[in-house]
Amino acid sequence: MICYAVIDTNVLVSALLSSKDDTATVQVIGKMIIGEIIPIYSKAIKKEYCEVLTRKKFGFSGSTVEYLLSFIEKYGILMEPSPSEIILPDMKDLPFYEVFLEKCSDNAYLVTGNMKHFPKNPFIVTPKELLDILNQKQ
C-alpha cells in the first residue's frame, strides 16, 4: 500500500542520527526510499530540511543530505498550501500542518516526533504509528 506523508524535520534528523536500522524513523525513511511512502512538501519545508540537516552539530555528510533532499524533490509532491489562520504551540511547525491540510485525505499523514505541537487528529501520527497503519493495510 502506498500512502502520502508530510514528514516533520525531526523524523529525518532522528533517522539520520540512528545507528539502528530497526528504529521507526529509519523504517519510515526506508519505506519512502522504496516508494511505499510518497513525501509531500512545500518550498518552506524543503528550506527547513536543508537548514537543519546541514547544521554542523549533527555532522551529517553532505552527500547524505544531498541524496535525501534530491530524493524528496524528485519523488515527492511539491505543494503550495493555502495560508491558514491556525495557531500552533510551535509556529515553526505551521508549514508542515498547512501542507497536511492541503493534502488531507484518508491516505495522507503528517509524521512527527512532536505530537504535542499539533492538534489531535488521527492522521497526525508518530513514525511508529505510521508503520502500524501501513502494516494493517497490507
Topology:
Blueprint: E1 3-7, H1 9-17, H2 24-33, E2 37-41, H3 43-53, H4 62-75, E3 77-78, H5 94-103, E4 108-111, E5 124-125, H6 127-136
Parallel strand pairs: 1-2, 1-4, 2-3, 4-5
Relevant terms:
138 residues, alpha/beta, 46% helix
* Main sheet: strand order: 3-2-1-4-5
The run of helices and strands is EHHEHHEHEEH
Low-confidence stretches: none
Indicate the radius of gyration in whole angstroms. 14 Å
The percent of residues in helical segments reads 40-55%
The major β-sheet equals:
5 strands, parallel
Q: Name the structural class.
A: alpha/beta
Overall average residue pLDDT: 93
Shape: globular
Count every beta strand, where a strand is a DSSP E run of 2 or more residues.
5
Binned strand content? 5-15%
Q: What separation lies between the terminal Cα atoms?
A: 6 Å
**What is the overall number of helices?**
6
